[in-house]
Design a protein that fits this description.
Elements: E1 12-15, E2 21-24, E3 28-36, E4 44-49, E5 56-61, E6 68-72, E7 78-80, E8 84-90, E9 94-99
Length: 100
């Protein structure tokens, strides 16, 4: 029986809380994200490698009013060795972070 390679695993989804959050603790591969605007038109979020908003910025989402932005970084994703932190700059985003 062959070993199960990590690059074959499905992504895991973490729901956004609408505020700043440590979405993933520890080393992870950011596979993508789906961020929905709260219909106010002012949602803006930054995704960082790390445990706060001082880590390397790896993605930014700014969906228009009532819409969403989807990012997919597959098939290999973005390595975030220090975790995945969501910094909500404005609004109350809904959606998910996808990682493995």
């Amino acid at each position: 029986m062959s070993s199960y390679d990590s690059h074959l695993r499905a992504a895991t989804a973490v729901a956004l809380t609408g505020t700043d959050q440590q979405a993933v603790t520890g080393s992870a591969i950011l596979m993508g994200l789906d961020i929905n605007d709260d219909a106010s038109g002012n949602v803006h979020a930054h995704i960082h490698n790390g445990t706060d908003n001082t880590g390397t910025l790896v993605a930014s989402a700014d969906p228009s009013a009532g819409s969403h932005e989807i990012f997919w970084f597959g098939p290999n994703g973005i390595h975030c060795p220090d975790g995945i932190y969501v910094d909500v700059e404005a609004g109350t985003p809904e959606g998910s972070i996808f990682y493995r």
